[in-house]
Specification:
InterPro entries: FAD-binding_MO, FAD/NAD-bd_sf, Flavin_mOase-like. The chain has 492 residues and is of the alpha/beta class. The chain has 14 helices and 25 strands. Strands 1, 2, 3, 4, 5, 6, 17, 18 and 21 form a nine-stranded mixed sheet that branches. It has a five-stranded parallel sheet with strand order 7-16-8-9-12.
């Protein structure tokens, strides 16, 4: 990768969340000869763990795999609170000097590719007003998958009439006092499952109001196998950390495979497990009897059963139904029931936004992501020298981010060694003619369905298939074919 004139960096990483920090580490490790910077639109690193401030925010997967593979998670808890995750990220970045490469308050508005100069120009709003142009050979999009500025607002009839407090978890009011108040959480996803046990500690009552139910499983902070591994390896800390990490990679992988291949049996297993944890006052049907099979939508986890403990305490409750209207002091359901909250929390999900909502130009022409196919789950058709990070829906996000980082670093190394200035995914004419589309994501969740028109496409064959699972993607990143479907263009 010979540097062109006025090149600011070899690589620009957009986003200083967990994906961006991880890629920076891999770049330093695998391609130390390349210069890079991280452009972050907000005031600090952390992404989700910096943005969200609602009570009890925590991971929805284990930290042994959600954490960085190059800095093992050492806390006792498997599912961690948001502030602890943010602290871990900041310490990890500082440990390897990554924090010194981040430019905060640098929001990338659009990016322009020039075939003539073989460079990207990132047009940046710096510190709210100043306009900057940063040129690089390669860009990596580590922008997450949702809109930081605009949450998903589900239609709740009459919500504007409510005289109490309405809060959305994405922008939680710092001064919200829910002590001894009746709280209704509208939603059934991971955020609602997280909020209920925390709010129930101070509120008079907390009720989850859901249109349709979810699977909620308990995950112990440390199970018997964890303790057995420790007892066998206490004398060798790196070995213990490696075995624990692989345990949390392999067991969830096996569970999800069983769910995909034996959905009815696993549905019964999940249902029986949930039934065993419910108090007599809460019925599994309809409140915990989803219409879909496990992992057709995301499965929610709660550490050490805290969600079920809140239900057993009597302060947490469930209601399944459809809102007819919200009045100034109540929520009326189509079933005739009424709820009388003081506070309504609209935990209705996230608005999907691919690649941070950036606008791309290729040689002056607008680039449409939704019209493009994905190469190996990493690059977009006809978009040169650009990769994106999109994690898994049935495993920790960081696993997918790291597989992507390793693949891109391998490509960068080969580009440099072969004098290649541009790589761009291209479908063959035969592929264009015969390509059969398949969903980018296996989920049937509402927020994914709503985002269908803004997500790129994936095909049923070749290099255009959606990514599969971590072990296969890791092998692909290290040893797989990175020639087919890519055009490699040498420098001038």
């Amino acid at each position: 990768m010979a540097a062109p004139e006025k090149l600011d960096f070899d690589v620009v990483i957009i986003g200083a969340g967990i994906s961006g920090i991880n890629f920076a580490y891999r770049l330093q490790e695998r391609n130390p000869e390349l210069s890079y910077t991280i452009l972050e639109g907000r005031h600090e690193m952390g992404g989700t763990w910096s943005l969200f401030k609602y009570p009890g925010i925590r991971s929805d997967s284990d930290l042994h795999t959600f954490g960085f593979p190059w800095r093992p998670w050492e806390e006792q808890t498997t599912i961690a609170q948001g502030p602890l995750i943010l602290k871990y990220m900041k310490e990890s970045a500082a440990m390897y000097g990554i924090d010194k490469r981040i430019q905060y308050h640098h929001k990338v508005e659009n990016a322009e590719w020039s075939t003539l100069s073989k460079t990207w120009t990132c047009n940046v709003t710096a510190n709210g007003s100043a306009e900057k142009h940063i040129r690089a050979r390669f860009i990596l999009l580590c922008c997450g998958y949702y809109d930081y500025d605009n949450p998903l607002q589900s239609v709740i009839p009459g919500i504007e009439n409510f005289k109490g407090t309405v809060a959305h978890p994405q922008f939680w009011p710092e001064d919200l006092d829910y002590t001894d108040k009746n709280v209704v959480i509208v939603g059934s996803g991971a955020t609602a499952i997280t909020l209920l046990p925390v709010l129930a500690k101070k509120a008079a009552s907390v009720t989850i109001l859901q249109r349709s139910p979810s699977y909620v499983l308990s995950l112990p902070g440390q199970d018997g196998l964890d303790k057995t591994i420790y007892n066998l390896t206490w004398w060798n800390k790196p070995l213990f950390q490696s075995l624990i990490r692989w345990k949390y990679i392999l067991i969830p992988f096996l569970i999800t495979r069983l769910c995909y291949y034996f959905p009815k049996r696993m549905r019964k297993f999940f249902s029986d497990t949930i039934q065993s944890q419910l108090p007599p006052t809460v019925a599994r049907d309809p409140h915990f009897n989803p219409s879909y099979n496990p992992f057709e939508q995301r499965v929610c986890f709660c550490p050490d059963g805290d969600f079920y403990d809140a239900l057993k305490s009597g302060k947490g409750g469930m209601e399944t139904g459809i809102v007819e209207t919200v009045t100034p002091d109540s929520i009326k359901l189509t079933s005739g029931k009424e709820l009388h909250p003081d506070v309504i929390v609209t935990a209705t999900g996230l608005r999907v936004r691919f690649a941070g909502g950036l606008n791309f130009l290729v040689d002056g022409k607008p680039y449409n992501i939704a019209d493009s196919y994905v190469w190996k789950g990493v690059m977009l058709e006809n978009l040169p020298n650009a990769a994106y990070v999109f994690g898994y829906v049935d495993a920790s996000w960081t696993l997918g981010a790291d597989a992507t980082a390793q693949l891109v670093c391998r490509m960068l190394k080969r580009m440099r060694s072969e004098g290649v200035a541009e790589v761009v995914p291209r479908r063959s004419e035969l592929e264009k003619k015969n390509m059969v589309d398949v969903p980018l994501l296996r989920l049937t969740s509402t927020y994914i369905k709503r985002a269908k028109d803004m997500l790129p496409k994936t095909g049923a064959t070749g290099q255009w298939r959606p990514r599969s699972y971590y072990l296969q993607d890791l092998l692909m990143a290290k040893f797989g074919d990175i020639r087919t479907g890519l055009e490699w263009i040498r420098g001038v």
